[in-house]
Design brief:
270 residues; 8% strand; transmembrane; alpha+beta; Thioredoxin-like_sf; five-stranded mixed β-sheet; Thioredoxin-like_fold
């Protein structure tokens, strides 16, 4: 014999209503949980963005307060690093703008670094090297170009003969755009491999030339060109960056033209 009496129609309707009520409550609880999760995620992202923005603002404000300490022998009117033949010697003058985060600069150095070193050592050109930092924003640290340029000037200040070798080592180990860049310890190691002493460490950590890089070298380089690399030989822009030997040949041709214009050795006895 069946236990209990069959439910009446009203009882069935009430049971259905109760089931629907519980379903609605469960759905409302689910929606509230989803909203809470979404709000939490948005809050975390917003805080992260604010932290990053705050870091960039802080670094920009700190950079603005950096004193402009010029490297020895470098003037604010001509804030480049000089190599090779003396100014006014008659050798071709080469203006070179580089940014250590710039991949095209790395390609240029890879093709031409040996020729640049040779031309400098033989006093066959006067090289004006301007370290740029306009690609700071392309590193997650927000300051890689400045840090690397500061290190270059520290090496140059200690001994200019090591600066070009350091530049090449930095490009041979160049970090990808969008990364944090090399650490200060890595940069110091490449400086030492180029011949610098441990003394450059304090120059790097104290940001001695940050003001020079940002307030003197960068504006000067930006006036010459909006991007890097920028190469000009006696004021004429050179753009055959990646053909092996082309840069050296152009410099030597400019040297020959300068000798003819001023009366070189072939004319001296006439």
């Amino acid at each position: 014999m069946a236990s209990g009496s069959p439910k009446s129609a009203s009882e069935r309707r009430e049971a259905q209503r109760e089931a629907l009520r519980q379903q609605r409550q469960a759905e409302l609880r689910r929606q509230r949980s989803v909203r809470i999760i979404i709000i939490a995620v948005i809050t975390v992202i917003a805080l992260a963005l604010l932290s990053v923005a705050g870091l960039f603002i802080y670094r920009a404000a700190t950079a603005d307060k950096q004193p402009v300490t010029m490297p020895t022998g470098v003037s604010e009117d001509a804030p480049y690093l000089s190599f090779g033949a003396e100014e006014g010697s008659g050798a071709p003058v080469v203006d070179l703008n580089l940014d250590f985060m710039c991949p095209y600069c790395g390609q240029f150095d890879g093709v031409n670094s040996a020729d640049i070193q040779e031309l400098v050592e033989n006093d066959q050109m006067t090289l004006h090297l301007t370290p740029r930092r306009f690609l700071d924003a392309n590193s997650t640290s927000g300051d890689y170009s400045t840090r690397a340029a500061n290190a270059l000037v520290c090496v140059y200040e200690e001994n200019p003969d090591n600066a070009l070798a350091f530049t090449t080592l930095m490009y041979e180990n160049q970090p990808a755009e969008g990364s944090a860049g090399l650490t200060d310890d890595q940069i110091l190691e490449y400086a030492k491999q180029a011949g610098a002493s441990d003394e450059v460490s304090s120059c790097m950590s104290s940001k001695t030339y940050w003001g020079y890089v940002r307030k003197a070298a960068e504006p000067y380089g930006a006036d010459l060109a909006s991007s890097t690399p920028y190469v000009a030989i006696d004021g004429t822009v050179f753009e055959d960056y990646y053909t092996e030997g082309a840069f050296k040949q152009a410099v030597l041709e400019a040297a020959g033209s300068s000798a003819s214009d001023t009366g070189g050795a072939s004319d001296s006895g006439r």
